Amino acid sequence: MTILVTGATGSVGRLLVDELVAAGAPVRALTNNPTRAALPAGVEVARGYLGKPATLPAALTGIDTVYLAPLPAYVDDFVRCATAAGVRRVVVLSGEPADYEAQGDPSTWHYYRIERAIEAAGFDWTFLRPGQFMTNTLDWAESIKTESVVRSPYAEAVQTPIDLGDIAAVARVVLLSERFSGQKLTMSGPEGLTAPEQVKHIAAAIGREVRYEELTPDQYLDRLAPAIGLETAQWLLDGFRMMAEYPMKPEPTVPELTGRPAMTYREWAVANASAFR
User: Fold this and answer.
1) What is the CATH number of domain 132-162+189-249+261-277?
2) CA separation for the pair 78, 68 (Å, rounded)
3) What span, in angstroms and rounded, lies between the C-alpha atoms of 162 and 166?
4) Counting Cβ atoms within 10 Å, is residue 16 exposed (0-12), middle (13-18) or buried (19+)?
5) Where in the chain is the domain with CATH 3.40.50.720?
6) If you write DSSP's letter for every residue of 219-232 in order, what string do you get?
7) Which of 72, 147, 148, 205 could form a disulfide with 269, with the two C-beta atoms 3.0–4.6 Å apart?
8) What is the DSSP letter of 27?
9) pTM (whole model) above 0.90
10) Which residues of 59-74 are buried (b: 16+ CB within 10 A; e: fewer)?
C-alpha cells in the first residue's frame, strides 16, 4: 500500500522518502517543487502542499497511510480531505511540548492542535514527538563565522537535541508497522547538553575557539522580537526557561526502534563543521 509523505521537500520529509525507498516501500511524495526535491527514481509525485487544500484530494486518492508534516493552520482541511479519501492511518510529526501546550490557552496550541484534530477525527494515529533539532543550532553559524561567539539565554538550560536523520528513521519504522497505533513517541538525542557544551563541540569541530555569552531574557527578546515577533520570541524564551528549571533527559526511542545508536551532537558538529567555518 502506497504511503503519502507530505512535506516531502522538508527537512524530515525528504529524508523519510529516502528511508522508505531503501526499505522497498511504495511512496507518493507531496511537493510543490518536484525538481527541487530531487526525489529518487520510482517515487510517485503528487504536486501540491498542505497549505493548498485544493491539491489534497488528488494526492490522497488511494492512500491508506499518511505521514503528516506539522502545519497546524491547515490541519482541519487535511482531516476533511483525508476522511473523504478513506485514509485509515496518520503518523504525525508533532513535538515534545504537545502535552505542555494542552494545558494552556487553545490560541497558543501548535503541536497539540494537530494531535487533537487527528485523534478526534478517528484515524489510527501515532504521534512522533521529537525535542529540539540539532539543526536549530545552525542559527548560530553567522555569529560564529563573524565574531566567534554564540549568544543565548539560560546557559544552564539542558536540551537533548536530535538529528533529523534519526527522526526520519523512527518515522520509517512506525509507518511500516501497525504496532505503534495510539502511541505518543517522545524522542531525543542520546545526551543532555547545555548551550555552552554544544558550543564547545562546534569549536572542536572547526578547530578554533568560540565564546559563549549568556543573554538576559530582556536582551534575548530585544534581539529576536524584531525578526520573528514578540509572541514567538517569548514562546522560545519560555522554552529555554523551562529547560533550565526542568532539565531534559534523553529518551531511548531512537535506539529501541531503529536498533542503532542515535547520533551524538559531537558527531553532528563534525559532519556540519563547514556551516560554521
Assistant:
1) 3.40.50.720
2) 9
3) 7
4) buried
5) 3-130, 132-162+189-249+261-277
6) HHHHHHHHHH-HHH
7) 205
8) E
9) yes
10) bbeebebbbbbbbbeb
